[in-house]
Amino acid sequence: MNLEKKTKRTVRRIDCKRITAAVKKLFIEANTDLGEDVIASLHGALKKEESAIGRHVIEKMIDNAYIASQDKMPICQDTGLAVLFVEIGQDVHVVGGDLRQAIEEGVRQAYCEGYLRKSVCDPLLRNNTGDNTPAIIHFNIVSGNGLKIIAMPKGGGSENMSAAQMLTPAAGAEGIKKFVLEKVSQAGANPCPPVIVGVGIGGSLEQTCILAKKALLRSVGEENKTDERVAQMEKELYADINELGIGPAGLGGRITALAVNIEMMPCHIASLPVAVNIQCHVARHKEATL
Amino acid sequence: MEVIPLTVHEISKNIQAPLTNEVVASLNAGDMVLLSGEVYTVRDVAHRRLYETLEKGGKLPIDLTTATIFYAAPSPTPPGKLIGSIGPTTSYRMDFFTPKLIEAGLKGMIGKGNRSQEVVAAIKKYSAVYFGAIGGIAALTAKCAKKVELVAYEDLGPEAIRKITMENMPLIVVNDSRGNDLYQIARKKWHVIC
Fold first, then answer.
1. How far is CA B127 from CA A61, B25, B27, B119, B177, in A?
2. Distance of alpha carbon B117 from its chain centroid, rounded?
C-alpha cells in the first residue's frame, strides 16, 4: 500500500510590527530614491531627444534625482497617495494586530515622521486627513509563506489624466490604441511628461484599472513577455505617442513617453474594458518581502 | 501676433517679482527667465477662499496687486532646511478662479500645464503672464527659496499661503500678455501625428 507523501506546509507567523516598519521604510525610500531603471531610462531619453529645451528638462530631472537621493529630500513635493500591492502567501499567519491597520500605521509613520507631504482629503469638504491615510491597498493571496509589499506613492497630477472606458468589442486593438493615444494627447503637459503609460485591457471595469496600475510596476523598458500581440501594441503605441510632439514638460520634443506597458486578461464576451493609468517621470515604487 | 522662438533654450532673462507692467509686456512665449523676488504659494483650497472673499467684497489676506502666485504646496520642512521639496502643481484646477484674481491685480502665475481660454483672455485683457516651472524636480527647485514666511490659511497645512523669496528660479513663459501659447507653438513644431 502506497502512502501518499504529504508535503509539509509551514505556517509562518509575521508580526504586525515588522509589517509597519517595512511599509514605513518603503514609502520613505520610494520618495527619495528614484529607481535605477527610471534613471537609466531618462539617460536613454536624453540621447534620443532632439529638442534643446527637451534635453535641458531631462538633464534637470536627472540632476534632481541625484540631489534628492543625496539630501534625502522628496524627488517631487507630491509624495503621493499611498498605493500598495500586498501579496500574502496563503501559509502566512499575521499576528500582533490587524494587517490593514498595521499597513496604515506604516503609511502614517512614513508621512508624519519622514517629512513627506500629507496629500489626502475628504472628497467633498477637501479637509486634509492629516496623516496621508487611508492608503489604497490591493491585497492578493498567493501560494507560499512569504509576504511581499510593494509601495507605490502615486501623485495626483498624472492620476488625474488617467481614464477607463468600456469599449465596444468591435473597436478592437485599433480602438484601444486610439483611446490610449487620445488620453495621452489630451493630457499634454499636465502629467509631467515624459510619462510611463500603463494600460489595462480586459477583466472588468475595476479589474482593468488595476491591470493598468500594475503595468506601471514593470521595470522601465521591459516589454510584455506573456503575449506577443500585447508586446506589439506596446511598441506601436510607444512610437505613436512619441510622435505627438508634447515632449519633456510639454515644451515640445520627441520623448513624450518613456515606456508603454500593457497588461491584458480575458473579459466578458460582450465587453472590452480598457484603462489608461498615466505615471509621470517620477515613477516611484519600492518592494520588500518579509 | 504669434511669436515662434528660434530656439527655446536661450540665455535666460533676469526678472524681479513683483512684476511691473513693463516687464510683463516685454516677455514673450518661449522666453527663459530667472525670477527673483517674492512669490505666494496658492493652490486649490486657498484659491476658493480668495475667490469667495473677492466675491463678498472682503479683505484679502495678501495684496494681489502686482503679485505672482506659485501653484504649489511644499513637502514638510526637514531640520536644517528652509523648505521641503517644492514644485508646480497642475494649473487647470485653478482656472475657474483665475480670471477674477487677474482682474483684481494678479500679474504673474507659475504652474504647469495649459490654461483655459477664459484665463488666456484675462491674461490678454489685464496684461499678466503665465510661467511654466518644470514639474517633478522639486528637490532642485527648493534650492531657489531663500526666505519662507507663512502668511495665511495656516489651517490648510501644506496648502497654506506662504510668501517665498526666490532667487534665480528658472521659468519659461508659457502664455505672454499677447495671448501666445508656448505649448501650442511647441506642439505644432514637434508633432508628427496629431
1. 32, 7, 11, 11, 5
2. 17
Residue in chain A closest to B11 (alpha carbons) equals A53
Q: Which three cell numbers stand for residue B5?
A: 522662438
| DSSP H stretches of helix in chain B | 21-26, 44-56, 98-103, 117-126, 138-142, 182-190
Q: What is the pLDDT of residues A38-74, one digit of tens each?
A: 999 999 999 999 998 999 999 999 999 999 999 999 9
Length reported for chain B:
194
Å between B22 CA and nearest CA of chain A? 26
The verdict on a CB contact (< 8 Å) between A251 and B8 is yes
- Rounded CA gap, A214 and A234, in Å? 15
Using CB atoms and an 8 Å cut-off, which of residues 253-282 of chain A contact chain B? Answer: 253-254, 280-282
Query: Do B77 and A115 lie within an 8 Å CB cutoff?
Result: yes
- ipTM of predicted assembly, 2 dp: 0.92
Q: Write out pLDDT tens, residues A221-268.
A: 899 999 999 999 999 999 999 999 999 999 999 999 999 999 999 999
